[in-house]
Amino acid sequence: MAAANEQFVDWDIIHVTGNAPLSLEDSTVNVVAAKIEPKLASAIIRQLNHICPLENLRHVKRVKRENSQGKVELSIIICLSSENGSSIEAFPSGVRQLIDNYNLTFFYAKVSKCQATSKEEWEEQCKLWPTSFHPPTNPEGVFGFGC
Questions:
Q1: pLDDT tens-place string over residues 65-88
Q2: C-alpha span between 127 and 35 (Å, rounded)
Q3: Could you tell me the residue ranges of all domains in the chain?
Q4: Architecture of the structural domain at 27-132
Q5: 3-class DSSP state for residue 115?
Q6: Segment (H or E) for 72
Q7: What is the CB neighbour count within 10 angstroms for residue 139?
Q8: Phi, psi of 105 (to 5 degrees)
Q9: Do 32 and 108 contact (CB within 8 A), yes or no?
Q10: Residue 46, beta-bridge partner list
Q11: What is the number of other CB atoms lying within 10 angstroms of the CB of residue 117?
């Protein structure tokens, strides 16, 4: 029983929806990429993972595969694009050396900044650049609200 001097607060229940969808500008980040020969992919990936790992973009696949006129073309993310410039001098020295060693022609691309939370979001992200998607498994069981 409540004491005589206790006051009760009337609580209102409000529904909080999921995260609001971000604009393309807010949900993407610019990267430096280059087209590469498929036979060089393994060597370039190993070097890039060492000199310029994509720590905050683990959900983004480093290599993008496209078929053009029956020929496989690969593009690879080299590094994040710096805010202060688009010249090769702004790139880390190891990246500049790799670009020179393989005579790569770089370009800029947009990739998803965050991991997808739904299949629909993942499909939208993959229109820019391939990403990984791992749907939650048995989310009801995680919180103990399962049937």
A1: 999 888 999 999 999 987 655 677
A2: 17
A3: 27-132
A4: 2-Layer Sandwich (3.30)
A5: coil
A6: strand 71-80
A7: 10
A8: -105, 115
A9: yes
A10: none
A11: 13
